[in-house]
Amino acid sequence: MNDLIFRTATDLASMIRAKQVSAAEVLEAHLAQIAAHNPALNAVVTLDEAGAREQATAADAALAQGGELGPLHGVPLTLKDAHAVAGMRTTCGFPPLADYVPAEDGSAAARLRAAGAIIIGKTNVPTLLADAQTDNPLFGRTNNPWNTERTPGGSSGGACAAVAAGMTPLEVGTDLSGSIRIPAHCCGVYGLKPTEHRVSLEGIVAGPPDGPRPVRIMSTVGPIARSLGDLALGLHVLA
Fold first, then answer.
1. 17-38 core/surface letters (b: 16 or more CB in 10 A; e: else)
2. In which band, very low, low, confident or very high, does the pLDDT at 29 lie, cut at 50, 70 and 90?
């Protein structure tokens, strides 16, 4: 299963569709990678193993039955802890949101699920996404996978560290003033800040869920991956 870890999301989806490997096998490989390396990196801060296994089983059953499949069918991935995911805590590293569990998916999560992806957990951020390093009072500091004494950057630091370390093949960050670009550089992965309004900001949690949204212009949502092809696939799904 180690051969699956650093495959692109595009490759994994193709292999699952061709029944060369099952969605369950791909999931277990990534869960094992998280178990092995996350204690040193602290990139993944929420993990729904049971829910992910149920979704992987369902993905394999759907494939066996035939029918139309999404471009990310059966591919497990994490999301930056700023995207609302139904039933999964979404904190932005902000203590007042420590127990906040959205009732509905935000746009990014909804589009990824519609494409067949399995959202397995959340990755770490600085408090309210407001730093170029990744550390917060809820989960602590995320470390760079190339050198754990270094920062992975921020605010999508957990996302980029997880991609670089093979914990997830694809991530979705947010970027106002470098929050995808800085950690992508620090972690040696690809990241894209799309044109403003190309990707919906609906479901970005950057403050108390019942209050006004603090950022309305310039901020964007974009993919993070280990290949340019996956950036294109991620943007196609998100936009």
1. eeeebbbbbbbbbbbebbeebb
2. very high
Residue-wise pLDDT for 188-226, tens only, equals 999 999 999 999 999 998 666 566 665 666 889 999 999
CA-to-CA separations, 89 to 10, 64, 123, 181, 201, in angstroms, rounded: 28, 32, 11, 25, 18
Check: CB of residue 10 under 8 Å from CB of residue 70. Answer: no
d(C-alpha 122, C-alpha 198), whole Å: 23
Q: How many CB atoms lie within 10 A of CB 98?
A: 12
What tens digit of pLDDT does each residue of 145-161 get? 999 999 999 999 999 99
Other C-beta atoms closer than 10 Å to the C-beta of 6 total 13
- Active site residue ranges: 80, 155, 179
- pLDDT of 33 reads 98
Which tokens belong to 60?
């394999």
